[in-house]
Structures
1.
Amino acid sequence: MAERTSESAAAAVDEARLWDRHMEMAKIGATPKGGVNRQALTPEDARARALLANWAQELGFTCAMDDIGSMYIRRPGTDADAAPVMTGSHTDSQPSGGRFDGIYGILGGLEALQAIEESGNATRRPIEVVNWTNEEASRFGSGCMGSQVYTDPAKLDGMLAMKDLEGVTIAEALAETRAAMPALAHRALKSPVAYFIEAHIEQGPELEATGNVIGVVTGIAGSRRFEIQVHGEDAHAGTTPRKRRKDAVRSAADMARALFELMDDPEDTVRFTIGRFMVTPNALAVVPGHVLFTIDFRHSEEEVLTRLGDQIEAVCQRNAGPCTVTMTETRRAPTKSFAGPVPDAILAATQRLGLAHMHIFSGAGHDARYMADLCPTGMIFVPCEKGISHNEAENAKASDLAAGARVIADTLIALANR
Ligand SMILES: [Zn+2]
């Protein structure tokens, strides 16, 4: 019987309606190259939130907001005391973001909720669609802010005081966002959640390359971030002989080459990026006396993160030449495994629906990382064109988005009846 009802919900998922909602959302903060700029708690984000709240309320669902601005669209269950099953992602984007990153997890969840409602499926647990505040960290640092605060309310005050580059605090931006939206009920942080499911475009090439429609995500890669400071000495570019130079760029380049050699594994599983390289004084005719560069290093295995990451400082020291080097580890986030009832339910739903699928590990961070500390958690990936993401050209197929929404609907029903 449960199987029959979940099938009816999956069948009620409407591909065109889901696509149209994406295109309607993509008008908010639309960029000339076809992407979106909808950074957290800007007027554009507020408009996206208001549209979402309106859609939810038109469908007869309630909508609440917590102290960091995350939104919760709720369909009640038959057991008033049961903790909800939650799904969702984020409305905010990078400054040159795409039309699907984040918003798919919300609109796919809303489509699933509507399909469950229209197919007349009652569930024991309530089902909620969440919009986490500031996942991207483009305007305000510290990404996955909504899920961080939800799972650890002690972080709230520190987050509210964070400022953007113009000195606007989260608290101020949040007050403006609230003022631009319909009034919503208050939601308490860390109220119990039974299960969390996040659907997202893959942001990588594997599903498309292998012809799979659904990625059953097994976990999120751990990461380590480092800041390397190379100290040399400014000197005249025309008069200073090589032997007298303390050229910070030359030393930093030697370090970078050695680090790339260390990290180039034959299996291509290591994700190693030097994304920022800042030269001082950054002048055409001055031998540079200082370089700051950053390292973002990710892997699915803690052992590899430790073994390779712990060699970074020594590699830099060996290649410092006449300069000196200091290293700071600015962040370490552990690998998160999702093994348990949620990936099992996602896999079962995918098989029931007969969709081509694979197990996949997420190299990108998501709110699901933090929710996994609170309750059993899992993620569903759908393909995106050529794996392109954090890019205005980001694209996905309506049929893949709908397939993902069917998996969400089926999984929500299974978990909401536990
Ligand atoms: Zn995202």
2.
Amino acid sequence: MNKTHTLSSDGAPRSDAPIDASDPLRFLTRLAGRGDVVPYDTAYGSVYLINRPELVRHVLQSDNYVRGSMMKMVLGEGLLASEGDYWRRQRQLMQPAFHAQRIAAMGTLMTQAAVETMAGWQKYAGSGRPIDIQTEMVHLTLKIIGKALFNIDFHDELDAVAEAVKTMVADLGRFAGTLFAKTYPVDAERNRRFDAALQTVDDLVHRVIDERRRNSETVGDLFSVLLSHRDKQSGKALNDRQVRDEVVTMLLAGHVTTANMLTWAWYLLSEHRAIEAELHRELSRALGGRLPAARDIPALPYTRMVLQETLRLYPPVWFMSRGAVADDEVGGYQIPANATIVISPYLVHRHPAYWTNPEQFNPERFAPEDMADRPSFAYLPFAAGHHVCIGNHLALLEGQLVLATIAQKYKLRLAPGAVVEPEPALTLRVRDRLPMILEDASRAGTAEGRTTTGPRSDHEEL
Ligand code: HEM
């Protein structure tokens, strides 16, 4: 048993590290330094942090561990929130929409959306005025997922929906923070804002469902799959609530995470100029200035490695929690029924037993020959086991195409004075904004970038 644990009144070993909800990354990092299974108490019960790949595998592959109900507040019985037979049936129903061929067909609209986003950047290019790349990536990925899965063209509503999602995700993040806190702060005003945000998203989704039900034409998107489905036994269709839950789930899960990935990638590239130069060499070789398409993906391995390494250092889903259904034993620890397990890709991806110089940004780690000896559960940005992300291939395709499209035109440079910090909310986003200046990509300059940043930007230019 790890000596750094103390015994609490129920006789189970506990971490004596003080809980610190204000800085969960630091708190979890300190816990991880104590062992690969570290129990600690919150006001809501016992939590076990699990940090060794084979133990993570055990939890994520076992039916004894289920997701909690927090996400149901927004997603209802959507795929990311449901469990058991209902989840299994819905996964089987939607899985074909994520097959490689279906995803590849979305390539053109992804590239096109990136081109449209850049059209809105023209007044900033060469002006030295920064633009908030985090917001830009959120809007771009929301547009892409709406169009790719549901044939939704966001026009005037884009800002309002993105803002509503931001409010909901921030509040879910506060709930999730109870895993690292002794209390949950009650805040009526925030609850009101949360309800209003949920209503904004629901209004849009119900309007689109109505339109699609009226216009019964089959477009071949995920909407068509959901609306045309009939249960084999009962012959029943999905009701509006069920369709709403899946649409909201895909819209949220399908853009917040992808936006985080791209935001961090731009930041890391701007700080590591040699890696950025290597990326540009690959893009010139493979594309020679033309727009990328899904068929170019095999010729863009370094672009993929940049994204994989970005997801290692800043995994958007930086923690996952599961509840134990029955008593179990994990890594020599007795896990009682109802205990909560926390698995943090952020920590596992920095585990010194599996990663050399874990803090260093080095896409070469994902060269095929280097990946061979690493246990598969040492890298889990998309989770693993039966709840493995259904959108993982879509996200990587989108990331490669967006990166390749934008990087061929612009080099994104961190605005002078900007400080970039991770904010471990529901997903691992950049705190506040990411102010960046657009430079013409054809201009030379391959010096290794800074790795530290100065004081926080006041963003007055944004
Ligand atoms: C970089 C982008 C993405 C990352 C890092 C990511 C990560 C994850 C992770 C870690 C999980 C497992 C969560 C858990 O079990 O607690 C998950 C599940 C899920 N993701 Fe993603 N995701 C990404 C993109 C997407 C996209 C593009 C979509 C949809 C188009 C999507 C839809 C989902 C859904 C529906 C689930 C639930 C799957 C299930 O339980 O069967 N994700 N994702």
